[in-house]
Automatic annotation (TrEMBL):
<dbReference type="InterPro" id="IPR052338">
    <property type="entry name" value="Transposase_5"/>
</dbReference>
<dbReference type="GO" id="GO:0003677">
    <property type="term" value="F:DNA binding"/>
</dbReference>
<dbReference type="Pfam" id="PF01498">
    <property type="entry name" value="HTH_Tnp_Tc3_2"/>
</dbReference>
<dbReference type="InterPro" id="IPR002492">
    <property type="entry name" value="Transposase_Tc1-like"/>
</dbReference>
<feature type="domain" description="Transposase Tc1-like">
    <location>
        <begin position="74"/>
        <end position="133"/>
    </location>
</feature>
<dbReference type="Pfam" id="PF13358">
    <property type="entry name" value="DDE_3"/>
</dbReference>
<feature type="domain" description="Tc1-like transposase DDE">
    <location>
        <begin position="144"/>
        <end position="290"/>
    </location>
</feature>
<protein>
    <recommendedName>
        <fullName>Transposase Tc1-like domain-containing protein</fullName>
    </recommendedName>
</protein>
<dbReference type="GO" id="GO:0015074">
    <property type="term" value="P:DNA integration"/>
</dbReference>
<dbReference type="GO" id="GO:0006313">
    <property type="term" value="P:DNA transposition"/>
</dbReference>
<dbReference type="InterPro" id="IPR036397">
    <property type="entry name" value="RNaseH_sf"/>
</dbReference>
<dbReference type="InterPro" id="IPR038717">
    <property type="entry name" value="Tc1-like_DDE_dom"/>
</dbReference>
Amino acid sequence: MPILTRDQRHSIQIQRDNGKTYSQISQSTGATKAQIRYTLKDDVDLTPQKKKTGRCPKLSAAEVDQIITFIRSSIERRILSCEQLCRLLGLSISAETLRTSLKKRGMIAHPAAQKPPIETRHAETRMAWARERENWQFNDWARVIFSDEAWFKSGWHRMPFIHRFKDERYHPTAVVGQTNQRSGIMVWACFAGRFKGPLVIWDPTWGSINSQSYCEHIVPAIEQFNEFLWSQGIDAYLMQDGAGAHHAYATTATFYDRDINIKDAWHPSVSPDLNPQENIWNWLKEDVSKQCGITNIPRARHHVLIQYIRTAWDRLPEEYLVSLTASMPTRVQQVLAREGAATDY
């Protein structure tokens, strides 16, 4: 049955308006009665329409703009999953449709960057610290013993995923604050230049970390590493954060008694991005997470987790230590350029 042209449809309507019967119209136009009946329906357009291809868009460009503005307004909204966003905003679309719409605009889920809240007083201290080291080069930083403590738990080490554009990694609403985890296994470690220092697994029977326990269990490890560096021709000095146990009078006296140089080794508060040992913790936690996954033990027992930590520390590559040391001049320059704000590290 041939498809009627626009002129045939128009002729059918004119003849019907003039009182012609279906039979008479059929004889003059060659159309069947079914075609005539269909043409005379009120909702039929005289112009044949091509069939549209593809699915109709579920969100208009303006709606996507509004959703992106909503997401970018705070870290709490960036963390929401597409499923949660659909429910919260009352969107009558699937989470996959929303995810696709955001992806077309360049907004996809990334692990959030973690930065501490830097207040004005912290920024001023960071600036002072950076000015003192503005001209330091790799060999100067290779003398520094970077040390820190961290807590390890079994399972996967992951930052929350957030929705952001590629260039928004350190946008004020795209970073999360540091958490003070105090559960699991506490570990202390240090490094200097290309040399890996000792790893100390804190025994719960030692109690909490105070000046006495620090001097008894951590300072000997620092002394041992300091002597090793001296044998390599490196006159090193120790850099620590502002924890009370690190700078107590008894601890400072013990450092001097053991010839551990802490002169000019102060470290600005709220500045984990200026201690590359923090980067090493992230590397180790990712490695431990992978070991938990490979062995199918998402919640490893205490002694198994300790073995995972030691294994990760043993295979920490020397090249990574060198790259972290080499990054310090850049970190200092970023602190100065940003007037004490957080760096990209």
